[in-house]
From TrEMBL:
Pfam families tied to this protein: DUF4381 (PF14316)
Keywords: Membrane, Transmembrane, Transmembrane helix
Protein's recorded name: DUF4381 domain-containing protein
Membrane-spanning parts: 26-46
Record bears the keyword Transmembrane: yes
Lineage, opening ranks: Bacteria, Pseudomonadati, Pseudomonadota, Gammaproteobacteria, Alteromonadales
The organism of origin for this protein: Pseudoalteromonas lipolytica
Length: 146
């Protein structure tokens, strides 16, 4: 009788389970990179929110004003310009200010329209709507040559 050659083999011993803790060094590197990227993203989000805060407040303030309150809307635009750009840009003569305002808002403002602000009868609702629209569309990162 012939013997079975498999009878001489020992039973299969299963290897011990590999522990998942402590983590391998590559996992610590991956976790630290993800944490650093998350912190950088949160800081950038916070800075962006703080940068746009003045414009958000100006939009809210302009919503509380009536359309015929063109002086107050114009002052809000000047304050936005001083905050995001320079004081010299906001203090320009009316002719240059109308060009700068047209560039910053995307609307077209003429010299005559802005001169209505300095007339005694400044009850111009259409100019107020245009100024409010300029506040809403005010460009924050436009390059201006002053």
């Amino acid at each position: 009788m012939q013997t079975n050659p498999l009878d001489g083999l020992h039973d299969v011993i299963a290897p011990a389970e590999v522990a998942w803790w402590p983590l391998a060094p590559i996992w610590w590197l991956i976790i630290s990179i993800v944490c650093v990227l998350l912190i950088i993203g949160l800081v950038q989000l916070y800075k962006n929110n703080q940068f746009k805060k003045a414009k958000k407040q100006a939009i809210e303030l302009s919503r509380t004003l009536a359309d015929d309150d063109v002086q107050a809307l114009h002052i809000i635009l000047k304050r936005l310009t001083r905050h995001y750009y320079t004081e010299q840009l906001a203090a320009q003569p009316v002719a240059q200010w109308s060009q700068s305002l047209s560039q910053l808002s995307g609307d077209t403002f003429s010299y005559d329209e802005l001169m209505q602000l300095y007339q005694p009868d400044n009850n111009h609702a259409e100019l107020g709507v245009k100024l409010r629209h300029a506040i809403n569309n005010f460009k924050l990162k436009e390059s201006i040559n002053v």
